[in-house]
Amino acid sequence: MLWSNAQVFGDKLESQALQKGCEEDIEKHCRRCIGYPTMRTMNKLKKYGMYTLFFMFIFVVVFQFSEDVRQPAYPVFKRSETNQTNRMIIVVTPTYKRMTRIADMLRMANTLSHVKDLHWIVIEDGNKTIPAVQDILDRTGLPYTYQAHKTALGYPRRGWYQRTMALKLIRSNTSQILGQDHQEGVVYFGDDDNSYDIRLFTDYIRNVKTLGIWAVGLVGGTVVEAPKVVDGKVTAFNVKWNPKRRFAVDMAGFAVNLNVVLNSDAVFGTSCKRGGGAPETCLLEDMGLEREDIEPFGYEKTKDREIFVWHTKTSTPNIVQSKKNQTKPVPPPDTFGYFVEV
């Protein structure tokens, strides 16, 4: 009986050894012949796979946390906005040849190219348009009109005549400027050397129903000019220069609904005595507007109000050209083959 049990136990061990040996032989054979993993290999893969999944999970958590940390705590610039009003913004920009003009136009083009539903009217103070300016306008992807109108006799060379020609263009080509998808518009006079926040167009100008007015920075010999608002109405203007004007506002500080422009023939004249030499109040008064028509923007906060447009001026660089007391004409500076309006 004892011998019988030992024999059974021995047969069992022998069977297990044979089975294990067969598994190893089969695994080697399968790996050599067809490359498929056996059950034993699969178990190992499962074990290492769990480790891999664990470390991948840790990596994802750490990466997500670091991404959250990298997110800015302040609002980022908007690329565009949804036009709920169906109004086309019409920006009028007089321009003229100068050394810094291309740099100014590039900066303004980079801003306007982020605004939807905008038609840019650029009027050159000269006898012909400039290809470099045309190229900038083409690259914006915006609908635009570029014309040349040299300042007429009697007008100051300050863009008044160019803005007048733009107003005539708007009145005579309204449907072409608005396009097929727009029935309304807002006209804004934007100089090429100012600094603009995109929100000036998306939050302010787009929503002007009659006459919109807002603050302008670095203008009129002061840090900021702004309308004085009481109970949502403009009662006066916080300005230093000629505050008694009915509309004591800088050119960059207002926009007019297109219907107001079309219902009048007002233009920029050769002078404006009512404005003390500034044309803004004469234009708005000639359009039949009153202070009661003003829609103020950006005044709602009691402090830390934001300025969306700055009356910056690009200073002409000091280019060293030649020695003093030279009898011959001073040659233009060398641009090494690059286009610069010198």
From TrEMBL:
<dbReference type="InterPro" id="IPR005027">
    <property type="entry name" value="Glyco_trans_43"/>
</dbReference>
<dbReference type="GO" id="GO:0000139">
    <property type="term" value="C:Golgi membrane"/>
</dbReference>
<protein>
    <recommendedName>
        <fullName>Galactosylgalactosylxylosylprotein 3-beta-glucuronosyltransferase</fullName>
        <ecNumber>2.4.1.135</ecNumber>
    </recommendedName>
</protein>
<feature type="transmembrane region" description="Helical">
    <location>
        <begin position="48"/>
        <end position="66"/>
    </location>
</feature>
<keyword id="KW-0472">Membrane</keyword>
<comment type="pathway">
    <text>Protein modification; protein glycosylation.</text>
</comment>
<keyword id="KW-0479">Metal-binding</keyword>
<keyword id="KW-1133">Transmembrane helix</keyword>
<keyword id="KW-0325">Glycoprotein</keyword>
<dbReference type="GO" id="GO:0015018">
    <property type="term" value="F:galactosylgalactosylxylosylprotein 3-beta-glucuronosyltransferase activity"/>
</dbReference>
<feature type="binding site">
    <location>
        <position position="193"/>
    </location>
    <ligand>
        <name>Mn(2+)</name>
    </ligand>
</feature>
<keyword id="KW-0812">Transmembrane</keyword>
<dbReference type="GO" id="GO:0046872">
    <property type="term" value="F:metal ion binding"/>
</dbReference>
<dbReference type="InterPro" id="IPR029044">
    <property type="entry name" value="Nucleotide-diphossugar_trans"/>
</dbReference>
<dbReference type="Pfam" id="PF03360">
    <property type="entry name" value="Glyco_transf_43"/>
</dbReference>
<keyword id="KW-0808">Transferase</keyword>
<feature type="site" description="Interaction with galactose moiety of substrate glycoprotein">
    <location>
        <position position="225"/>
    </location>
</feature>
<feature type="site" description="Interaction with galactose moiety of substrate glycoprotein">
    <location>
        <position position="321"/>
    </location>
</feature>
<keyword id="KW-0333">Golgi apparatus</keyword>
<keyword id="KW-0735">Signal-anchor</keyword>
<keyword id="KW-0464">Manganese</keyword>
<comment type="similarity">
    <text>Belongs to the glycosyltransferase 43 family.</text>
</comment>
<feature type="active site" description="Proton donor/acceptor">
    <location>
        <position position="280"/>
    </location>
</feature>
